[in-house]
Amino acid sequence: MGNKPAFYSISQVAEMTGLTTQLIRKWEQRYRLIQPERMPNGYRVYTQHDVDLLQKVSKLVQSGFSVKNAVLSVQNQHSHLRALESHPEYQQTSETLVSDRGMDVSKIQQLLALGERADSSGLIETMQRMQQELGIRPFLYEIVVPFLQKVGTFWKEGVWSEYQEHIASGVTRDVLIQMRRTLRTPESGPLLLAACVPYERHEIPLHMLMIEAALEGWRSVFLGPSPAEGAIETSIVELQPVCVALSMSTLEPVHIHPTLIDELSQFAAKHANTTFFFGGRGAQAYFSTHSAHPFYLVQNLRDVLRTPNFF
């Protein structure tokens, strides 16, 4: 008595979700969100899992998502949860993981809904509020990193236009720059010089690194995306930084200037008192066939932070 039925009719699902039967069929056929079973008499029957998926998509659509993006988001969450549940440590920490994941996913979905509408002012206000609520490091790694990963995926798969991707990435960059400007560092602190290599414009990881450095008392100078050839070397001579962080996300810089990395390598070898880090997918690809010396080759920001020569 009181047990929930194993299956629901489409009219019951409509009543439970607040969706019309026509809309349920449309989402089923167009987006393949759910795949109801058919009884011998031909009627569709739905499970509680189907109801849950429909309710999640409906909630996202109401918050501003397009139906297509809402379905993609829910399907990605479901795939992630299945992978999580297969992990051997899941049973010990499931309640904490699901709770934390739900909180983060909700915030990221909120940002994605704003990005979907290319609402730059809404993105700025929401990101600033999240940073104040969570603190700097949780905001960076629990919000910024997964948000940008989603943005990149949506753009690569054609779900978002280049304009939507540009707004989301640009706002994130601006928020990070403002965060760094509000962090006070001692004038006597060691200096970090951060730069994209010439013809490279992917700067967000460097802004995150400079924020981390500021939290540890480091001063930082950023040369900007795609500095002029020779600007990195000139700045190092003038500023004498303790560390230099270089970023190259594609191989385009070496296609444009084939000897670029060789020249930087020769320069770095002459400045033994400065520690040079090199990161980005382009750097990983280049150094897979070239010696990385004298650079510390890193795969991501946290590799830099774990290097004894840095902090």
* Count of DSSP H/I helices: 14
Mean pLDDT: 84
As for the CATH topology of the largest domain, it is Rossmann fold
Radius of gyration: 24 Å
The CATH superfamily name of the largest domain is Cobalamin-binding domain
Organism: Alicyclobacillus tolerans
Keywords: DNA-binding, Repressor, Transcription, Transcription regulation
GO molecular function: cobalamin binding; DNA binding; DNA-binding transcription factor activity; metal ion binding
Protein name: MerR HTH family regulatory protein
Can you give a write-up of this model?
Residues 7-74 form the HTH merR-type domain. Keywords: DNA-binding, Repressor, Transcription, Transcription regulation. By secondary structure, this protein is of the alpha/beta class. It has three domains: 1-62, Multidrug-efflux Transporter Regulator, Chain: A, Domain 2 (Orthogonal Bundle), CATH 1.10.1660.10; 64-182, Methyltransferase, Methionine Synthase (B12-binding Domains), Chain A, domain 1, CATH 1.10.1240.10; 185-306, Rossmann fold (3-Layer(aba) Sandwich). Helices cover 60% and strands 9% of the residues. The strands form two sheets. It has a five-stranded parallel beta sheet with strand order 4-3-5-6-7, sandwiched between helices. Strands 1-2 form a two-stranded antiparallel ribbon. Helix 6 packs across helix 8 (162-182) and helix 7 packs antiparallel against helix 8. The longest helix has 27 residues, at 90-116. The radius of gyration is 24 Å and the shape is elongated. The relative contact order is 0.06.
